[in-house]
Amino acid sequence: MQFVEEIVVEEFLPTVRSMLATALRERGLTQSEVAEVLGISQSAVSKYAHGDVTVNDRIASDERVESLVEELAQGLASGDVTPVRALIEIEVLVRELETGGDLLAQLHEEAVPRLADHDSSFRIHDPENELRTSERVLSSLRRGLGILENASGFSALIPAVGSNLVACTPDAEGVDDVAGVPGRIFDVKGRATVPAGPEFGVSEHVATVLLAARDHGGDVSAAINVRYEPALLAELDELGHVTAEFNESGDIASSVGDAVGAEPDATVLYQTGGMGIEPLIYVLGTDAESVADDVRSLS
Q: Where do the HTH cro/C1-type domain residues begin and end (predicted)?
């Protein structure tokens, strides 16, 4: 089993880095300067310079790769292009080459021939493919959960009803389009415990809050619930979040909709509880990792 990302890491990146290192050296940069610009070690630059790194000739000879390497080398050498800008440009090209029958997709199908023979209506390299979209959501959730599990103080933020980190597909319409943790995340002897890997359709409560926020214009795709405290709201406000209160005693979707309608930029929703209702804060964001990062900063 080989994923296209492995081809990117094992063949595309070494090839592009080797090409960039050579082009930068040709423009007068020292070995240490090349290492700093590319964010790699001097020993790695030395390996590229001496041909100790295997280069994929098909990638190296692709006109788009050649053109981008020359453009970035010129910009990096002159200072007109920052390393971050170069990274973004390379990332954009990677996504282009992964799409449809393009270069990286071809290399992947050659490495895993059965992909090419799989149901012709199914194209794993189609960026709109439902399975690929779902896997991206689940991968994001797994990374977000990893952040929370390693956050030393997160367990103290888990409410009595448990927490759930959820994320949805771009065109989510219902809870089946939202992935979360089966059974929720609980505090077990001071440690956040994730009982199972994320799945779609297993969260109703937090998923409903997320979907309602999206339905009323919220530009969010992930959410988590934590215990309510005024001090936590103040910290989230300092992080740049906009807060809005809603009433959870009635119809949640309508209450959340009213709150987001009144405060369209809200990324933190909260309710202060009631008869049989635990007060909670819901932190929303563009993806599971950013939501987890915000919560970790509260720990």
A: 20-48
